[in-house]
Automatic annotation (TrEMBL):
<dbReference type="InterPro" id="IPR032675">
    <property type="entry name" value="LRR_dom_sf"/>
</dbReference>
<dbReference type="InterPro" id="IPR003591">
    <property type="entry name" value="Leu-rich_rpt_typical-subtyp"/>
</dbReference>
<protein>
    <recommendedName>
        <fullName>Leucine-rich repeat-containing protein 24</fullName>
    </recommendedName>
</protein>
<dbReference type="InterPro" id="IPR036179">
    <property type="entry name" value="Ig-like_dom_sf"/>
</dbReference>
<dbReference type="InterPro" id="IPR000483">
    <property type="entry name" value="Cys-rich_flank_reg_C"/>
</dbReference>
<dbReference type="InterPro" id="IPR050333">
    <property type="entry name" value="SLRP"/>
</dbReference>
<keyword id="KW-0677">Repeat</keyword>
<dbReference type="InterPro" id="IPR013783">
    <property type="entry name" value="Ig-like_fold"/>
</dbReference>
<keyword id="KW-1015">Disulfide bond</keyword>
<feature type="region of interest" description="Disordered">
    <location>
        <begin position="486"/>
        <end position="506"/>
    </location>
</feature>
<feature type="compositionally biased region" description="Low complexity">
    <location>
        <begin position="497"/>
        <end position="506"/>
    </location>
</feature>
<keyword id="KW-0325">Glycoprotein</keyword>
<dbReference type="InterPro" id="IPR007110">
    <property type="entry name" value="Ig-like_dom"/>
</dbReference>
<dbReference type="GO" id="GO:0005615">
    <property type="term" value="C:extracellular space"/>
</dbReference>
<dbReference type="GO" id="GO:0051965">
    <property type="term" value="P:positive regulation of synapse assembly"/>
</dbReference>
<feature type="region of interest" description="Disordered">
    <location>
        <begin position="301"/>
        <end position="328"/>
    </location>
</feature>
<feature type="signal peptide">
    <location>
        <begin position="1"/>
        <end position="25"/>
    </location>
</feature>
Length: 514
């Protein structure tokens, strides 16, 4: 070590506490002194490595940094001020500043930010001033600044903000200054400003304000007490539309002139039949003032995995978000590759500050004959009790696979059925021989007796007879009662007719039709 080096090192540490000498801990081309690092206007594309962990102020302005990589700022937990203005940042990843719990001032002016994700400022609980002017922001979504409870200044001027959602400024209870001038705001709701309990300065000038019923509250609020938040220049809130109020100050217009026209909706046709696999577009036209927002939705909530409709603005690409998306003026229901799940009722809704209107739409899905056959349920089983157990033959492999007890039971049942059939055949033969020997009934003019040809067929009514030519016939013999009667009743029945006591007529022969 050269003579006097320890003395120089001691002097450096005394002059710049918290920082080693430049040669030991300063990024190339940057200037480091005290707890400050200057890396501005160096054409950097990324945050340079080697920034000392004790840095409290970091200048990175006027470079070409397009992205803050996750974790790139994690070692810089001591940061108090970070200047990233005039770079090329297009987005902020959620949690990118999570390690900067001591940060007081963050400058992001003059970048290319088009949107801010919820959680982009998570971890900045001590932040006092946030500069977002001169970006390309189009809308501020609900809860964008929720993690900034101590923020006092929010600079959003010179963007293209058209929409400020009702909860976009939620959590900013300490905010004293809000600058929304030189944007594209046409309206702002009372709910959007309600979280700002500490507001002292509000700038709304140079926006294309639409002076209708939705802005009535702002004029009344300014006249009643909001003037204290506006400078003489800021009070000049000029109307851009409707044409009859253009270039007039909101404060000079009577409340009765701030009107809205409720929407009307038109869908043509109201019912469409589409084929499977087709694409479908249905336009929903809405009119009113201000121009209504148009939303398509399916009336019945789809089940898990069921296809959803998409909104497509007229003449544009499909909008993300499905049937809950909205479009100003005209909305297009866009369905691709139609299936049976798409069929049902839909609803087109148009809404503005004056109210809402809805029109139903019915989609039917047509099936070809072949598709109907493919989707038809199987035919019902035949009527009557049907056994679903397989029939087994005695010699089959399945029969042999049965247990010994089961085989014995089946064999016994078959033998019993065979014996019953033999006994029945024997009885029929004996009765046939007796019939041949028995004399004919007196007064019979025909061999077979039957006075009706329909009715229940029972074993007591059926007899098998053989005529002289050997033909077998099945007849109903009414001379033989259904149930056995006593001798007296049988004799009386042979002598007289039923109930009236008339003589029996010669019976006629009929073949039985069961």
């Amino acid at each position: 070590m050269a003579p006097g080096a320890p003395t120089l090192l001691l002097l450096w540490l005394l002059w710049f506490p918290g920082f080693p000498p430049r040669a030991a801990g300063c990024p190339a081309a940057c200037r480091c002194y005290s707890a400050t690092v200057e890396c501005g206007a160096l054409r950097l594309r990324v945050v340079p490595p080697g920034i000392p962990p004790g840095t409290q102020t970091l200048f990175l302005q006027d470079n070409s940094i397009a992205r803050l990589e996750p974790g790139v700022l994690a070692p810089l937990a001591a940061l108090r001020r970070l200047y990233l203005h005039n770079n090329s940042l297009r987005a902020l990843e959620p949690g990118v500043f999570r390690a900067q719990s001591r940060l007081l001032e963050l400058a992001l002016t003059g970048n290319r930010l088009r949107g801010l994700r919820v959680g982009a400022f998570a971890g900045l609980a001590q932040l006092r001033a946030l500069y977002l002017a001169g970006n390309q922001l189009v809308q501020l979504l609900d809860f964008t600044f929720l993690h900034l409870p101590r923020l006092q200044e929010l600079h959003l001027q010179e963007n293209s903000i058209e929409l400020l959602e009702d909860q976009a400024l939620a959590g900013l209870s300490s905010l004293a200054l809000l600058d929304l001038s030189r944007n594209q705001l046409g309206t702002i709701s009372r709910e959007a400003l309600q979280p700002l309990a500490s507001l002292q300065v509000l700038r709304l000038t140079e926006n294309p304000w639409r002076c209708d019923c939705a802005l009535h509250w702002l004029g009344a609020w300014i006249k009643e007490g909001g003037q204290r938040l506006l400078s003489s220049r800021d009070k000049n809130i000029m109307c851009a539309e409707p044409p009859r109020l253009a270039l007039q100050s909101l404060l000079d217009i009577s409340g009765s002139s701030l009107i809205c026209i409720p929407p009307s909706v038109h869908v043509e046709p109201l019912e469409v039949t589409a084929n499977l696999g087709e694409d479908l577009r249905v336009a929903c036209q809405a009119s009113g003032y201000p121009q209504p927002l148009v939303t398509w939705r399916k009336v019945a909530q789809p089940r898990e995995g069921q296809p959803r409709a998409q909104i497509q603005p007229e003449g544009g690409a499909p909008r993300p978000g499905g049937p809950g998306a909205s479009d100003t003026g005209s909305g297009m229901l866009f369905l691709t590759n139609i299936t049976l799940a798409h069929a049902g009722k839909y609803e087109c809704e148009a809404s503005n500050a004056g109210g809402a209107a809805r029109v139903p739409f019915q989609l039917l899905v047509n099936l070809s004959q072949q598709q109907q056959l493919q989707l038809a349920p199987p035919p019902p089983p035949a009527a009557g009790p049907v056994s679903h157990e397989p029939l087994q033959e005695a010699g089959s492999m399945a029969f042999r696979a049965l247990g010994l007890a089961t085989q014995t039971a089946i064999a016994g049942a078959i033998a019993l059925l065979t014996l019953t059939a033999l006994l029945l055949a024997t009885m029929i033969c004996r009765r046939r021989r007796k019939r041949k020997k028995a004399p004919g009934l007196p007064g019979e003019g025909a061999l077979f007796v039957n006075d009706y040809s329909d009715g229940p067929c029972t074993f007591a009514q059926l007899e098998e007879l053989r005529d002289e030519r050997g033909h077998e016939m099945f007849v109903i013999d009414r001379s033989k009662p259904l149930f056995a009667e006593g001798p007296t009743e049988a004799a009386d029945g042979a002598a007289t007719g039923p109930a009236q006591g008339l003589p029996l007529q010669p019976p006629a022969a009929y073949e039985l039709h069961c």
